[in-house]
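User: For my dataset I need records formatted as: sequence, then structure tokens, nothing else. Please produce one.
Assistant:
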Amino acid sequence: MLFQTSPDEPILHPIAIAQVMVNFARSFGVDTETCLLGTGISLVQLQDSETLITRTQEMRLIENLILALPDEPALGFRLGLQYNISTFGAWGFALRTSRTLREAGVMALRYLPLSTAYCDIRNFEEDGYFAFMLDPTPIPPPLRQFLLERDMATGINLVKELSLAGVHLSKLELQGDAPDYAKELERLVGLKPHFNSQRNAVFVTLAEADRCLPTYDAHLVQLMQLQCRQQLQRRQSSGVAGQVRQQLLGSLGFIATVEEVATALAMSPRSLRRKLENEDTSFKKLLDQERQQMALQLLKSSDMKLDELAFHLGYTDTASFSRAFRRWKGCAPGEFRKSC
């Protein structure tokens, strides 16, 4: 075992995960209002790519989906196959740029709270295979089987997408008796599951796990890991300051103005400034802090040129970035990098 997830991590999930579920339900004739009943998610929030939702909201949406489609076989598996790398933003792209499937798996588990997963997931090697084991015990019993199937199918889909040329799954083990829809599972996965196993696990050969992926990019691996760390920290943040940080680290980026962030948070710039002042901070301070933290990490962990780094941080030129860095650390960015 290399890594184990923490099921109690209070991580917010991107709305894209809910959007996939709503679109999936719509393909069966279930309307959006039925999906969102009791979730507290509005239609406006559902359409806003920057919205973050709690696990409680997501759980309610899942309950609505199950109640609306009680007779659909392998519903969890079929939903899981709808998720792809692009659904998960930085987490997904971190997997895409990894060197091998094994390294992508390690990355996936390190930042697993950024995904859809509810199961505890571990990786292991056994008898020439590299495998992922899924433990659904932390999931409430009424949703346990559904979410086990969804998590497993999502993982299978990501493995296949990462390989492009086609990684062949070797084995699929599932606890419990074969369900009535066992044949449907076999059709969806392309592999006959072994039921009544001691664990729930997906296997590939070690050769498949260590084959270099066609989308490997060493530079982007470092950058995507950095983005994942930032997102993991910020999704645990609360208050308006935390929401502003999420916007700066999201699609708006470090070039965002206070007016743009206020619009994204559905408030006026004046209201945003007042709320930040009540939290003893300001938009300018938050932007400066996030730029500083990102700059330090990029200088330490990447070979990115200073002009690229300045652009990534939202500065108009390298000189502006250098002046800001001297204010933060009392030295030039190049000097800081050499001292690391």
